[in-house]
Amino acid sequence: MPPTLIRTNCFTASFQGIVDAYGVGRYQEVNPAPYTIITFPFLFAVMFGDVGHGLLMFLFALAMVLTENRPAVKSAQNEIWQTFFIGRYLLLLMGLFSVYTGFIYNECFSRATAIFSSGWSVAAMATQSDWSDAFLAQHPLLALDPNVSGVFLGPYPFGIDPIWSLAVNHLSFLNSFKMKMSVILGVTHMTFGVVLGVFNHVHFGQWHRLLLETLPELVFLLGLFGYLVFLIVYKWLQDYAARAASAPSILIHFINMFLFSRSPTNQPLFHGQEAVQSALVILALVTVPVLLLGTPLFLHWRHRSRSQRGPAGRQPDEDKSGILDSSDASVAGWGPDEEKAGCPEDGEEAEFVLSEVLMHQAIHTIEFCLGCISNTASYLRLWALSLAHAQLSEVLWAMVMRSGLGLGRKLGVAAVALVPIFAAFAVLTVAILLVMEGLSAFLHALRLHWVEFQNKFYSGTGYKLSPFTFASEED
């Protein structure tokens, strides 16, 4: 197999390093690095979404980018600084994407900002309800009813409505939103990885894998978890404000889908839902034996057909072309199964053991089918890390800045007290929320790319090109 050479520049080198740390790609294999330039900072930003924190990270990386040609910056010997400097463009995009997701979450150092007018009207609720002085004295918490005319004016133009930051059910609302968002992003990311495998199969001439592997994988993934994404989006588009108590549960529907049952208390989302769910589960189960037996049986049939023709039927030119330009697959792109069922070596038929090929395919089938479940659940880390980051920001603000702002009402006392308090807030923000939380989100984004995304199409079993040179190596 030829070595792999991927040309990079100062911008793409850090992203290619992330991929190469997993494994160097085989010769002419699809390289995940160009897609990682967008997906890695975005998944990081989903877990790190905050306008203030993202802006600090962006400015830090921008300073390194603007001074990257200075000799003092290049020659710095500190290992931590060198690590940051090598990944300066990665940090730049991570900070930029974090600012974007921070606007979506409407969080800046855990504080909401009212860029646009809120879609909820407290005045309309007050004028159309019996909120007397006695009622307000007895009820410290008030509920806004969207069924009352004029209370809900429409969705917020961009991101989360700032009025949710004042609600006691703010955390419950964000939990539901971020959990479903994580499932949608995860299924989309994994489906994109399976689709990238199509380019590998087409380039290497492995046409049988399109029908016997890629198609069953897409049917299995989209038939089960793509349907879950459809349920989430479909329920989002429905208006359950007037019948919130009887709103259907997607989780119950998804569990009943595998049990071929229904819950009398859980209303269907659309007509004929049970029939659709049963058909999708049966279709997904049918794809498992196709994925398990399709490729081994095809390779066994191809091996037998070539054995019956025998080596005598080949011309010398055909032997060379069979090695250099195989009609079925490029030799560089063969897996172990194709190598055993492919062209003969040194004029002799290569040994083909069906049981070994079946074992390899069984491992792949089990890994993919079970991985669809575990990998989808693994993307829930986007929800968990985002929630943890938001809560840490809230705790830091409440314990430090809010306490400092409430120390004294006199201007002199507040000015003197806020200097050390703001210094402590800045140090804790950088140390905990930027460095520790940033490293945690980075590692989780790294795992999502290595395990959940790249294993759908990327083998990473190649080796880098080492150019021949006459220069002597210096000890």
Automatic annotation (TrEMBL):
Which InterPro entries did the record assign?
A: V-ATPase_116kDa_su
Q: Which keywords are on file for this protein?
A: Hydrogen ion transport, Ion transport, Membrane, Transmembrane, Transmembrane helix, Transport
- How would you describe this protein's topology in the membrane? Multi-pass membrane protein
> Signal sequence span per UniProt?
none
The regions listed as transmembrane in this protein's record are: 42-66, 86-105, 183-202, 214-233, 240-259, 279-299, 411-436
Q: Which residues form a coiled coil?
A: none
Its main subcellular localisation, reduced to a broad class, is membrane
* Molecular functions per Gene Ontology: ATPase binding; proton-transporting ATPase activity, rotational mechanism
For biological process, the GO terms are: vacuolar acidification
Q: Does the keyword Transport apply?
A: yes
Q: Which Pfam families match?
A: V_ATPase_I (PF01496)
- Tell me which family the UniProt entry assigns to this protein: Belongs to the V-ATPase 116 kDa subunit family.
Q: What is this protein called?
A: V-type proton ATPase subunit a
Q: Which organism is it from?
A: Lynx pardinus (Iberian lynx)
Source taxonomy: Eukaryota, Metazoa, Chordata, Craniata, Vertebrata
